[in-house]
């Protein structure tokens, strides 16, 4: 039982050290936020006009033509197999 009591005490000490460390880091970040207020500002994303996705025109889809590898001479001639995109 004494062994478990020692372990519990060590855990309590470690938790306290962790809490102190965590609070210290949190306070440092808060001070930095106060000092450098631009961290709190939202980004103003306004670029040049006519650069948004609504301006980009989609190119018409091109027909994809599949030509199988050479398989000797075909009886019906060379045919192209077209696949829909």
UniProtKB/TrEMBL annotation:
It comes from the Eukaryota. This is Putative ovule protein. The lineage of its organism: Eukaryota, Viridiplantae, Streptophyta, Embryophyta, Tracheophyta.
């Amino acid at each position: 039982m004494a062994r478990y009591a020692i372990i519990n005490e060590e855990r309590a000490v470690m938790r306290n050290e962790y809490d102190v460390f965590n609070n210290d880091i949190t306070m440092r970040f808060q001070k930095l936020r106060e000092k450098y207020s631009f961290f709190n500002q939202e980004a103003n994303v306004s670029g040049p006009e006519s650069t948004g996705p609504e301006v980009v025109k989609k190119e018409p889809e091109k027909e994809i033509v599949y030509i199988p590898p050479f398989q000797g001479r075909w009886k019906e001639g060379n045919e192209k197999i077209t696949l829909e995109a």
